[in-house]
């Protein structure tokens, strides 16, 4: 896991710089700056909207006496998506929007569920019960 995180921290900023330079040469620096600001504003609005909807889903699940499993994965995806949308760059913006839009978030949640289940089967995740 640490290797993937290190790779992400090293490669993504380098790719972002390259894409930003290319886009600046292609459409002009002011348009790139405007686009970065616009994606940040739209991303913040979308993260707020999706976050509030997820909170309502958690409250509904809890009021019916059901565990909010799906809503918790939604919340994690929305948190990560909102965080990467605040970083300037087109690659992180694409990742952020993928995590924030419910239709594109669904396959990622299925993948996360499989990874979590695999980790639990291997015993690398310990669940503490009272």
Automatic annotation (TrEMBL):
Transmembrane segments: 5-24, 30-47
Keyword list, A-Z: Membrane, Transmembrane, Transmembrane helix
InterPro entries with a match to the protein in the record: FxsA (IPR007313)
Pfam family of the protein (one): FxsA
Any single Gene Ontology cellular-component annotation: membrane
Signal peptide: none
Highest taxon above the source species: Bacteria
The protein's name: Membrane protein FxsA
Protein species of origin: Halobacillus salinus
Lineage: Bacteria, Bacillati, Bacillota, Bacilli, Bacillales
